[in-house]
Amino acid sequence: MDLQTLTYIVVGFTFALYIGIAIWAxxxxxxxxxxxxxxxxxxxxxxxxAADWMSAASFISMAGLIALSYGGYGGSVFLxxxxxxxxxxxxLLAPYLRKYGKxxxxxxIGDRFYSNSARAVAVICLIICSVTYVIGQMKxxxxxxxxxxxxxxxxxxxxxMTIVFFYAVLGGMxxxxxxxxxxxxxxxxxxxxxxxxxxxQLTGNPIPQLGLGSTLAGxxxxxxxxxxxxxxxxxxxxxxxxxxxxxxxxxxxxxxxxIGTAGLPHVIIRFFTVPxxxxxxxxxxxxxxxxxxxxxxxxxxxxxxxxxxMQTIEPEPGQYLAYDERPDWFKNWETTGLLQYEDKxxxxxxxxxxxxxxxxxxxVDNDIMVLANPEIAKLPNWVIAxxxxxxxxxxxxxxxxxxxxxxxxxxxxLLKGMIAPNISxxxxxxxxxxxxxxxxAGAGYLGLNPPGFAxxxxxxxxxxxxxxxxxxxxxxxxxxxxxxxxxxxGMVAGISVTLFYVFQHKGIMFIPGTAFLGxxxxxxxxxxxxxxxGVVGAIVNFAVAYGVSAVTAPPxxxxxxxxxxxxxxxxxxxxxxx
Length: 578
Fold this sequence. Notes:
Layout: H1 3-24, H2 30-35, H3 42-53, H4 56-69, H5 76-100, H6 105-112, H7 116-148, H8 153-203, H9 208-211, H10 223-233, H11 247-263, H12 265-268, H13 277-295, H14 298-313, H15 328-334, E1 339-340, E2 363-364, H16 368-376, H17 381-419, H18 425-448, H19 456-478, H20 484-506, H21 534-550, H22 557-567, H23 572-576
Antiparallel strand pairs: 1-2
């Protein structure tokens, strides 16, 4: 069976599965829509959280970033940041927010800081972070469709929007949760099966995590040593020791991703869906296990994909592949525009080097590395089709979670919480579905007209969450003295300084011509790149919040007692029954 037919069958089957689950798990109440009825088993919630978390950036882009842009070792910022955030989430946020027992992050912030203004600011921060993040998911859907289903980008995006609309609007969090469990199974199989094949091909070891540190099959040369030799021969930096710009920048980037993870609202609301306080921490632990399966595989996928790519183009040192003899995978990706060749010296050979003046591989997009890897390695068509389904599952699962966070903020926090507090449950449920539909339409528009999307857009979302929501939650749980004025000023200052820094160096959402200082290390504050600046914004948030709180009235006594009741284990079981 040809690849396109097989891909349609595999992707069509997964879409039918998602729609079937949505019909089965239709939300019948606002509690079903917002928190899946609060009865999800911790293991199931951990699996759904993993799917919610592992976006197109994790599935499609991360290994490409490690393989190409960050040169191996520099890519550890993503592995440590995105997984380390779950440790913070499990230990410092999830159980306390579940004990509080409300539906949304802005609702907690509004109650803890005894202010609808604080709630409104939290809603604005949530929408800014989530919209920034959802752009990448919509783009991922379009890219995967355009290559594997051989339709144009716009058509692919419309199909993806329709699928998300069906199960997200119909089922809310309940439908999304059970759909994400299925999507996790699809994406993890799609990621690990090709990795197992390729690891066995290259090293004879079927476990990718071990294969990365093994010798190449039939030789005594280690895979990473061979990769270092290949990339340095072409003028690139050594793969295994290439630090991302500086040690301080590496630290800032990792910290920003870590606390941004713990502050992203679509991740946090997942822990409102479990029955008990203890289950929130347990499900965070399971989520970390399920995430680690992919995240420990990613370095192997990155290294092996980079080696296969290099050795395809340059089979032997100084012996380059003729363009007329390029393999089918090369031709397929050329048609997408994500892979481009320019014969600069007219010899008809594909010369790939670090020198821009002589490099004829003028574009090798990070996002092709995972998706093209099975084709480069000449794996069976069913494996390639499975990868397409996995990439779509990753993008759709995270998009659904983000869109639910946006719609919940609009319907529950703005409408129910501030504008029309006496609205009936049925009317709120209908408003939630309408808000979800509007959010999907908005996300689709941004996907069709992306503001200069780059892989860094996703990292920016984490920086914005790190600088605004995470500090407010931490101070709300662990400090009785932070006042509403302090919290509001902190959130505004944190997200503002982060956005200002990004606007100055990268432009407004990466629109060309809007940057004032230029995106170069010489113009960066202490050498910290814009996508890593969230940790500085968080420091500003904390400092402003505590400074303003010191000169304003302390929180009322009942609010201080609320903080105590959230933190102290006594009575936790009773609270978990709410």
